[in-house]
Amino acid sequence: MSVFNGAAQLDATLNGIEAQTMRDYELIAIDDGSTDATGEILRARAARDPRIRVITIANDGLTR
């Protein structure tokens, strides 16, 4: 999942993913250089859920 400045919707998105019936998954979340709380939210979720991996990159856009 790629996200840029998505803090306002991120909790709802992650809650929806966690609510799925499939439990065996890895969520790779790419923080595309966000300047809002996106990175903090992702890191906090990853700290309590080992299925979430966060990668932070400079803002290059989705296709980069």
The percent of residues in helical segments reads 25-40%
Uncertain segments are none
Distance between the termini: 13 Å
- Rg estimate, integer Å: 11 Å
Tally the helices. Answer: 2
Form type: globular
Strand content: 15-25%
| Record field, number of beta strands | 3
Quick check: average pLDDT? 93
Structural class by sheet pairing and helices: alpha/beta
Largest sheet: 3 strands, parallel
- Spatial strand arrangement across the major sheet: 1-2-3
| SSE string, helices as H and strands as E | EHEHE
Task: Report on the architecture of this protein.
The structure is a single chain. Helix content is 36%, strand content 22%. The protein is of the alpha/beta class and 64 residues long. It has a three-stranded parallel sheet, covered by helices on one side. Helix 2 (38-48) links the parallel strand 2 (27-32) and strand 3 (52-57). The two termini are 13 Å apart.
Please render the helix and strand layout as text.
Blueprint: E1 2-3, H1 7-18, E2 27-32, H2 38-48, E3 52-57
Parallel strand pairs: 1-2, 2-3
Helix pairs in contact: 1-2
Relevant terms:
64 residues, alpha/beta, three-stranded parallel beta sheet
